Amino acid sequence: MNEHLIIPQNIQEVLNNIEGTSLGLAELPMHAHPILSQFDRSIRVLDIDAKSEQQFIYFRYEQVLKDKESGEELKISLPAPEWVIYKETTSYLLDDEFSSPIELPLKEPTEDMTHDKVKVPSYKYMLWLLKNNKVRFLELLTYYLQEFAKAHKDELDKLS
Length: 160
Known about the structure:
By secondary structure, the protein is an alpha+beta fold. It has helices spanning 9-19, 122-131, 137-151, 153-156; strands spanning 26-29, 39-51, 56-67, 73-74, 83-85, 90-92, 103-105, 115-117, 119-121. β3 (56-67) and β4 form a beta hairpin.
């Protein structure tokens, strides 16, 4: 593509890095597998299908295991429960550091509860965070992966 150019070393390094970029959208670390703890485990996000009018996001992904010493990928199929954010899915509104949910007092407290976390529609919240530069794409994916992994831990930890 650029054969007609005299390319300096620093630009060639950038071009090599671009060429070597994985086609997966992200690879995010996960907690160790309870049985296969000798491997590092991650989720490789392969595709994201977002439908704006329907407020729907579908994540296609795979679980990846890599030998901790060699870095070699283990080729076994692990469960991949559906990772979807629907129009009705809600998330907690997070503080400015994107680290913990905002909790506010109830209008009508009870003996059991005086405060609760603020909930927002997940799809619109994700868009708002990205469009307003509140969080970067990989940080956003990491947060939602953590929530997904917590909710589906048992399914993700199965071996077949």
